[in-house]
Specification:
The complex is a heterodimer of chains A (about 325) and B (about 190). Chain A has about 325 residues and is of the alpha+beta class. Chain A is built from ten helices and eleven strands. Classes of the chains: A alpha+beta (about 325), B mainly beta (about 190).
Chain lengths: ~325, ~190
């Protein structure tokens, strides 16, 4: 009862922001309705989790019995949506709550909203074009877009070829930039080294007035993307950066079940060597891939960050009703 | 020994880095692409004043620095050390030239200073924002000039030299802003 006077009850965002978010959702829904992309709804709780070493899933128990089934809150709706795609849904989209433990900051809240969509028979390039169309509807100002390969951008700004550089090379580059501690952060992972260098020395130098589509990632950063068949091999993955903020991540989706299972297995081994808890691999996703995932491309865009960029907000708290500290 | 994890980092937090007490100036959580989470931190070394950029792995812990700011009265200088006293507890501490720094130019016995203590010893001393000091030497200048234009150097009782308006004379007490080292007003006696 003493807490009735606490100052934590009101929302952190303005009333205007509530309207802007509602308008944005309407824009998105009519955009996809016109293109006959179906809105879907999948559960946020799952018996399986993402195996990704850098993702930490919230857990929940199905009942309060001691041996209760453990459930995981989704880190993105990707797996469930791919099961729908395999079942023959056709192109789909979802505005989905997603959850990542230990992610809090100016651009992060442990619970956040993703717009994720999949286009059957789209190449990565076609999906990028569609995303540009959507972004132009969202921003009142005129946006300028550029597409650049990860390799070209990395080479140009650091002199390092990310497709061939060893972890040692990346760590020494960071040390030269007075970040010798990078070695602790990156562990044994070349992908971590690339992500560290990119976020520390490349991302801050991107022009603020351009929307960047960074494409064709090194194979070790493929995640759930297809690998190109032509040499040099690259992952058909792209990330979107605007005003220095990472806004979206997309793939020309991996459809090969054997390859997917191997990647999961490898991630589980990395988790083990990092001393992280094992998580159950999503066997339903693998069964769906085995049945057959249509050729498709998909992308997840952070809607809270999109709203931040649309309103020039300094913190994600400015676009959320109740960020985690007030949840 | 108290420690802080990166999730507790925020500006103003006092931590030990490179064997020196430091204060966090800025902290930003970063999770690049699909990569490892880390914190991008700017911290100021309280001994040297230098600001350093460093990244910390998420979950990494650092030692807390026992640093506190306290209001103390300046007692006296013994030639090597400046002595201060806590008016409530009567605890006395002494700091050397490095700790007292610029404040030495401004402080007189009984002045209330902000003393930053590290493990109980003065790390830095801040003089009051305004001090009142007597002029011990200045060029007599022109009598009757009240324009205040130009100004002249004046030596104060503590030895500090400030620029004062031409009409201010030896023996007068003036108010000085210690943050800028500038004359602020004449104090009527």
């Amino acid at each position: 009862m003493n807490d009735l006077k606490n100052k934590q009850w009101p929302p952190t965002c303005s009333a205007a922001l509530l309207h802007q978010r509602a308008e944005l959702y309407q824009t998105i829904r009519s955009f996809f309705a016109e293109k006959s992309v179906l809105e879907v709804d999948t559960p946020v709780l799952s018996r399986a989790a993402s195996c990704d070493v850098n993702l930490d899933s919230f857990t929940a128990n199905l009942s309060n019995a001691a041996q209760s089934q453990r459930l995981y809150l989704q880190t993105s709706p990707e797996f469930a949506m791919k099961r729908l795609l395999a079942s023959g849904s056709g192109s789909i989209y979802q505005i989905a709550k997603s959850f990542r433990r230990s992610e809090s900051g100016r651009f992060h809240n442990p619970e956040f909203t993703l717009l994720e969509w999949y286009r059957v028979d789209f190449s990565m390039t076609e999906l990028i074009e569609e995303m540009i169309e959507l972004l132009m509807l969202c921003f009142s100002e005129n946006l300028a877009f550029t597409t650049v390969s990860y390799g070209q951008l990395f080479q140009q700004l650091t002199g390092i070829d990310p497709h061939s550089a060893s972890l040692d090379e990346l760590i020494s580059y960071a040390s030269e930039q007075e970040n010798p501690e990078a070695v602790n952060i990156c562990g044994d992972s070349r992908a971590n080294g690339l992500d560290y260098v990119f976020s520390q020395y490349i991302q801050p130098t991107l022009k603020k007035n351009l929307v960047y589509f960074v494409t064709d990632y090194p194979v070790c950063m493929a995640m759930l993307a297809n690998i190109s068949e032509t040499e040099p091999k690259v992952a058909k993955r792209f990330e979107v950066y605007f005003k220095g903020v990472e806004l979206a991540n997309g793939y020309q989706e991996l459809t090969d079940v054997k390859e997917q299972q191997e990647r999961f297995q490898q991630e589980l081994e990395e988790r083990k060597s990092e001393g992280l808890e094992p998580v159950p691999m999503d066997m339903n996703l693998l069964a769906a891939l085995e049945f057959g995932l249509p050729t498709c491309s998909g992308v997840a865009m952070g809607l809270d960050r999109l709203l931040m960029l649309m309103t020039d907000a300094a913190s994600i708290d400015d676009v959320l009703t109740f960020p985690i500290a007030r949840a | 020994m108290a420690t802080y994890s990166t999730s507790e980092f925020k500006s103003g937090l006092k931590i030990m880095m490179d064997n020196s007490p430091c204060t966090i100036v800025e902290n930003e959580f970063v999770r690049p692409g699909k990569g490892p989470a880390f914190s991008r931190v700017k911290y100021r070394n309280l001994k040297t004043g230098r600001v350093i950029d460093r990244t910390f792995k998420s979950g990494e812990t650092v030692e807390a620095a026992d640093v506190m700011e306290t209001e103390m009265s300046y007692l006296y200088n013994d030639g090597e050390f400046w002595h201060f006293m806590d008016d409530e507890t009567f605890d006395q501490v002494s700091g050397d030239k490095t700790a007292v720094g610029d404040a030495a130019k401004w402080i007189k016995e009984q002045d209330k200073c902000t003393v930053t203590l590290w493990n109980g010893s003065p790390l830095t001393v801040a003089a009051p924002n305004f001090v009142e000091l007597e002029i011990t030497d200045t060029d007599p200048g022109l009598k009757g000039d009240t324009s205040g234009g130009g100004g002249k150097p004046a030596t104060l009782e503590t030895g500090a030299v400030v620029r004062v308006p031409l009409f201010v004379q030896i023996g007068e007490v003036i108010k000085v802003d210690t943050r800028t080292g500038e004359y602020s007003a004449r104090v009527k006696s």
